[in-house]
Amino acid sequence: MHGTVYEFEALPDLLQPVPLPRERRNAPAFRGEPLIGIIRNPRSHRNRGVAAEMADCPNILTETPATRADLVGSLAEFARRGIDYLVVDGGDGTMRDVLTCGADIYGDHWPDLIVLPKGKTNALTVDLGLPQDWTLGDALAAARRGRTIGRRPLRVRDAARDSKAVQGFILGAGAFTLGTEAGQEAHRRGAFNSMAVAVTVLWGVIQALFGRAGNPWRACTLMRLVDCESGQPLPHSGRGDPDARYLAIATTFERFPFGARPFGRNAAPGLKLALIDWPVRWVMAALPAVLFGWYTQGLARNGATRTSAREVELDLGGSFILDGEAFPAGRYILSQGPQLTFVIP
pTM of the full predicted structure? Predict the structure, then answer.
C-alpha cells in the first residue's frame, strides 16, 4: 500500500497462505445489516486529508494497512469475520494490491467487491461504469438492489516459480512503460482520470510520429509472446526484429475511456491483447482511429494486431507495468484470475 515497488522475489514473504477454519470459509450467517470490510488507502489522490466514509457504523470495519504485509493481515481478518462486501477505497494500484495480497486468502471465492474511485486514473471504474462521485452510500444502495457485474482480473505469475503472482487489470510493456511515466507527468500538471489517458496517448503518438532515430518513443523491446495452448508465437508481421515489439497491452476490460473500442465493437470478454511490432509512422498516425474501433488487414500486415488467448507466456527484455506499477524483466505466464463480482450503479 505504501512505499516502493515490490518485486516478485518478495512475494512469498507477503503471500503465505492464511489458514482459515472451514466453517468461516462458508457464507456468513444471516445478519440484520451486511458486514462490510474497507481497505482504505489514505494516500490515494482523493483520500488525502479526507475522513473515511461511514467509519462510525458498527457494521463497517475500516483498515488502513501501512504495508503489503499488513494488508495480508487485514484481509485475513476480514475473511475470519465473514464480511459480506469488500470495499477498495483507493485507485487502481490499491485494487491490484488487494487482489494480489488476498489471492491465497480468498482463492476463487471472494466476497462481492465495491470500488470507490479515489485514485488519479481509476481505469477500473470506467470499465464498471461508476461515476466519479460514487460514494459508499451509493454503492450500498445499489447492492441492496442487486446491481452487480462480473469481471476477471489478469494473473501474472513467474514462469520459473509458479507460486509468485500478481493480479490486476491492465498490463503493458514496451512503449507502454514510457506512457506510464508520461501519465505521471500529466498528473503533476493537473490531468486526471480519462483526461490523463488522452493526454498520454496524444503525446506518445506525436513522439512516435516525429521522433528521430534514438528517440526512446521509437524504440522496440525484446518481447517473445507465445500462446500456451498452441505453443505458437502470437502473430508477428516481421516488421523489425521478430523477437521484439514496440508495444504490448493486455486487459480483461470491456469498456474504455471516452467510449474507445481498441478491440473492436464486438470484443469478447476475457483476456485480450493489442500488439504493435514496429512504430510504422502511418500506423501511429492512425492510432486514434484504431482506438475507437477502426481496423483493417493493412494494419495487421504492418504489425498492429489485436488478439485474444487463454494463457500467454511472456519473455520480456524490459519491465512491464501492471495497473501503474513497474515489475522487472523476466519470463512470466499471463492468464485470467478468479471470477469477481462488483457492485455497480
Answer: 0.85
CB atoms closer than 10 angstroms to residue 297: 7
The identity of residue 322, as a single letter, is L
Show the 3-state SS of 103-145: HHHHCCCCCEEEEEECCCCCHHHHHHCCCCCCCHHHHHHHHHC
**Mind listing the pLDDT tens digit for each residue in 186-239?**
445 444 444 555 556 565 666 666 666 777 778 899 999 999 999 999 999 999
Question: What angle is formed at CA 200 by the lines to CA 194 and CA 202, rounded to 5 degrees?
Answer: 105
pLDDT at 211: 62
Which helix (H) or strand (E) element contains residue 16? none
| % of the chain beyond a pLDDT of 90 | 62
Instruction: Report yes or no: 129 and 201 within 8 Å, Cβ to Cβ.
Output: no
d(CA 230, CA 250) in angstroms, rounded, equals 19
Cell of 72: 495480508
Residue 185's pLDDT is 45
- Residue 100 phi/psi, 5-degree rounding, is -70, -50
Q: Rounded distance, CA 33 to CA 30, Å? A: 9
- For residues 327 and 246, the answer to whether their CB atoms sit within 8 Å is no
Instruction: List C-alpha distances in Å: 281 to 132, 242, 261, 284, 296.
Output: 36, 19, 21, 5, 16
The pLDDT value recorded for residue 18 is 42
Q: What single-letter amino acid sits at 159?
A: A
Q: Within a 13 Å sphere around the CA of 279, how many CA atoms are in the beta-carbon half? A: 23
Segment 58-70 mean pLDDT: 93
Quickly tell me which residue has 505466464 as its cell: 333
Tell me the H-state helices in 232-322: 281-285, 287-291, 297-301
